[in-house]
Amino acid sequence: MTQLVWLRNDLRMTDHPAFEQALSLHSTDSPVAAVHIATPKQWQQHNESPAKLGLRAALLQQLQQQLAARGIELYLLEADWFSECAEHLAELCAELHCSNIHWITETPWNECQRDLQTESHLRSKGIQCHIQAVDQLVSEPVLNQQGLPYKVFTPFYRRWLQLMQNTDQTVHCSLPETTIQTSQLMPLPDWASDFRDDLWPADTKSIHHRLQHFCQLKLASYGGHRDIPSEPATSQISPYLALGAIGPRELLSAMRNSKWGADYWMESDWLRELAWRDFYRQLLSHFPLLNKHQPFKTETLNLQWHNTPSHWRAWCNGQTGFPIIDAAMRQLLQTGWMHNRLRMLTASFLTKLLFQDWRKGEVFFMQHLIDGDFAANNGGWQWSASTGCDAAPYFRVFNPIRQSEKFDSEGRFIRRFLPELASLDDRSIHFPSGEQRRKCSYPDAIIDYSSSRQHAIDQFRNL
Q1: CA geometry: angle at 142 spanning 138 and 146, to 5°?
Q2: Which is the most buried residue in 137, 169, 299, 458, by most CB within 10 A?
């Protein structure tokens, strides 16, 4: 009787509780197999980017080969929608004479409803569903003393750190190494798209090397350099974390075992960023309206967002006339990724200065990011728009010129993605004069910062 592991956004073999449980029940008469169900129409509805789909397909190719080397077959099925998954799994279980299926829960609403429907259907067929807890950094919910969810990050983080110290974060290799000859890579599915595989290689060795390289060489300097977009100071692990090609406990294990010492990791700014990831994921579970593109602060539903198509197009195409904003947007369009500081700046620009609905930007990012993660993306946009849980105060409006001067003082990042401005001096490049713009064929600024900032503050204050 086959032990079947249902893979979703957990495309890996290590740090995988569902694989571990399946293997614990493994025997000669009960082999382990895996299945992944592609749902291209559902992914399109969820605004999954072509780059992310391309990386998903490449990861599946690699995973199928790795599993085959260990005598485990990966079945690749396709359905249009989540609602069809239950029947596809029931049919596969019947074919494999499988009475046990294992999977790891996911946080967003649609994924939760899919799993509930699937569990009910499979149990009605006599198939046992072994479901592992949400695959987060901490294996249990982080609640306050009243058993309620935190609405402010700082006390959440303090409690989260306590749990981290008392939780076993040992990483287990679920599947033993073998020397079996690997099979050829599967052909790419129809839904696969091109992505920058020169930036985001899909092989496991490269992914783990990137993590180790960051923890051993960059972790200690991360706090001081993470906001400088021209420097390769961040881990750039997020695309693999979003698709589960690497597990959260693997990140923690790499931090704890780095050369900086067993205690240093608890003070790391990178650890704090991982806690924000948990915070946003848990909010989805506690406040379901967040899954339906509703603001956490319901009073902000009364904001009268602008609908200025020319401003929207300028922002999308990196033609706002504010160099740091345009360079950031072009980085996104060219690579499928954007530096985290720039995500905050571009989101603040759209919502506070152009005063456009944050939900438009949220969708646009998901449609282009290779590391698009619904919880983190929604949380980040609502933070920037001052509509979310523990969001930036409404009167905090980033000045894109000052931010550019502070975090890209020599204009290195701007020159990389706005080569038309490369000849400008280090001061002018942050906000060229009218004459410089004409010579460089660079557009005029589409808004005045001061008046736009005041308008946003007035609108929030009037709520």
Answers
A1: 160
A2: 137
